[in-house]
Amino acid sequence: MEVIRSQKRTASNDVVSNPKIPLYLTAPPLEVRLEEFELFAIDRLRVLKGVSDGLARGKNPKEMDDVVDALWKEHMRHSDASEMLNKDIISHFVIRLVYCRSDELKKWFLSMETALFRHRFRLRNFEAQRAIVGEFGLPYKAVTGAELESLKERLGQVVRSLGQISPSVVNDICCVSVCFFSFLSFAVEAVYYKVPFEEVPDLVAGRRVLIQKGHAFVAGSQLVSLVVTQFRSHISKALILTNRKWMTTIREREKDRLTPIVEALSTTYVGPDYSQSNDYADISLKDIDQVSKSSFPLCMRHLFEKLREDHHLKHGGRMQLGLFLKGVGLKLDDALAFWRAEFSKKVGSERFDKEYAYGIRHNYGKEGKRTDYTPYACQKIISSAPGVGDHHGCPYRHFSEDNLRAALGRMGLSSRGMEDVMDKVRNKHYQLACTLTFEAVYGTSCDVGINHPNQYFEESQKILKSKTPAAPV
Amino acid sequence: MFITSEFTTARNLFPYTDIHKWLSYGHDGKHPGCDEYYFGRREFSFTLENDVYLRYKSFKSVSSLEHAIKSCFPYKIDIGAVYSVDPDKRHAYSQTGTNVFTPVERELVFDIDITDYDDVRYCCSGADVCSKCWPLMTVAIKVIHTSLKEDFGFKHILWVFSGRRGVHCWVCDPKARRMTNEQRSAVAEYFRVYKGNENNARKVALMGYSLHPFLARSYVDFLKGFFEGELQANQSIFSTKDKYDKILEMISDEDIQSELREKWEKSANRSSLSEEAISLVRWEQLKNTLQSKKHKAPTLRMCVEEIVFTFTYPRIDLEVSKQMNHLLKAPFCVHPKTGRVCVPIDPNNCDEFDPLAVPTLSQLIEEINSGGSKMDVDDDDDDDDTDTSLLGKSIKFFRSSFLEPLLKSCKEEIESSYKTKIGKSKDSFSW
Fold first, then answer.
1. Catalytic residue list contains B111
2. Which residue of A has its CA nearest to B94?
3. Which of B87, B112, B101 is nearest to B170 (CA)?
4. Using a CB-CB distance cutoff of 8 angstroms, which residues of chain B are in contact with residue A161?
5. What is the C-alpha to C-alpha distance for residues A452 and A320, in angstroms, rounded to an integer?
6. Which CATH architecture has domain B4-130+140-190+317-424?
7. Are residues A297 and A236 in the same domain?
8. pLDDT digits (tens, 9 = 90+) for A315-357
9. Which structural domain, as residue segments, surrounds residue A147?
10. CB distance B208–A315 less than 8 Å?
11. Could A197 and B202 be called an inter-chain contact, meaning their C-beta atoms sit closer than 8 Å?
């Protein structure tokens, strides 16, 4: 891709409303104006940030389809189809250059581009989807004849095990010819692809496919899983190569032209990760009990209380609470003292030093590969899987209704406030439930919405300090 | 807990050659296609007597492995992944560029521990295990083993007793060893049904109109029969109010709960039947009631199955399976608290396995002292039918059912991929 001054490009006859989704396999031989380099990238970043916000708010796949559709139309649309395609491709490669430069940036870019691809794919009709699958050059064939017959009964079981098919799902089943069947009964779809199970990990994890002798039988309507895995894998590899090229040649060569733009673009959009605590939030051990009651979100309060009660937490809980405390400003030495004081009541201080101190130091980047781990955001906590004896996870998701009500009662919610929160929980809007709790507890509104426990803590501290500036809160 | 002299015996009885052969996967240097450095890139970890934990140990050969174990005196040996470079030389390589220190192969592993079933076993809790609750492990092996073979197509699967209260599973097919973390996580989630802790009442939620074929097969072939037979006999899960209340709470309809509760409270004193018989009668009553009322709500549709799954379906430790760099105890170690050897379990005969009959270190020492077996099991006699010692049977099973078929298939793979490589380079020279 060559960056030059103004050039005219030839138009093509592509349909604007149903644009091609490029796979970004290789940088195309296009010419880009310097101004466009930056502007296209900013527009795409707006789309990616919108995707990130949507996911953080716990939107379901159908809602995300709409979000992506709206974002794309707002920022990436162009009356000329080939112009639109060029902007799509160019902006992707520019952002790739910007976001290949650290692990944190790479991870974010990979997640957002994959999500963007997934929802753009879902918005296409079946023919367009099959064309995209074809472009990946995957060798997987449709199952036919006697083999399909022998599988039909179990394929039917899989369809029925996935629950009620409601009208909204009809949009997801993009194969028009079986649309009616699926709407009215639990019929097996017309087309199934035989694919190695490794290629569709999310379908395997959700038991959404029949698996036999290492092959997964993927329905036409599930193709999105297959291509998203491929797409993700390709982008992940490409990021590594791009990073290498950046470090070895591009950064130096472009230091007077593109490099300053690239470096500026990356700081524009990474959301706060709370890995460095700010002045608001330095807590000391003597204040920690009080602060846990006044400013901790429910998930951390629960872990904290359980720790005080049982003098122990399992690994998941230690990670979730430990990193949160780090983000809140607890220094390593204080953290070690805090956990030791609790754990030694159960396992003894010697065992604590042998078995648990390492883990805490590891969280602070003092052991192993010395990564300074960042506190978990809500998305990560909600999608965790607390098991027997665990207390981590998101209470709005993982608690039974009774236990959640009791916990909210202890936080001081009125019965009306509680009903609003429970309503959000029933609709699986866990972060909105937490936001409503915040609003009820502090008597203020939180327009931005909670998407990180440390954000809850900081916002809470801001409010409390503004009320009583001197006293510790 | 462990006497150094006894553990010396353990270290002498450890089958170094067999373990080395296994973990070399055919790369024994005898074929030009072998990677002679393969074994040396495997991580081991040692736990020493004062809980000192040494990671990233690696060995170029079986003799250096044996030498290290006999001189460091570990009481636990864990096996990790095969890395891109020798683990003990990892600091020589930077974290960027092409020579990053990262895992490249690792068996797909599972860890099932009976303490995760404490809420459904009444005979023991915590670290204890007995003949009444061990069958939970047996049924877990059957369910998981069948799925690994039939659904995922894996062929080289090793099940090992963990020494006290659980089992480990090592899937060693090349495909399995090359799985990414994401794929491992997917398989672990596929196996996951129980989503419980003390904060939720209904820990198994089977949604939908039918069971997925994997769950249906597990239910029909293993779980139902086990629940209605052996489990009822051993645990009598309906015989007292405490016990049956727990089950009634899994039914999401209050009316049905009260109906059954009243019925059972009334019959509590009047019956002259045994605990087991009472349990069975109540189970039938529960099934009939649910069958007639299941249309009342979607959550009742598969309530019977949910109850069966809650009590019997395998509960694997997800974290162990998800990451390539997770270490797992080596087979044939001796468990420091029980003294039992971590012997392999035959998945096709797992009903016969009795954890309380597994040879202990003291038994092995006594056997040696009375001249009953050779001190050194570590030799190459594959057809040694005369070795009927306590440990000999396990070693023989390990070799014939697992190691030999595995090595045969590994060698075939090394040979065929070598031929392909040679073939390719021949073509590139064609004029």
1. yes
2. A369
3. B112
4. 207-212, 215
5. 12
6. Alpha-Beta Complex (3.90)
7. no
8. 999 999 999 999 888 888 889 999 999 999 999 888 898 889 9
9. 135-165+176-220
10. no
11. no
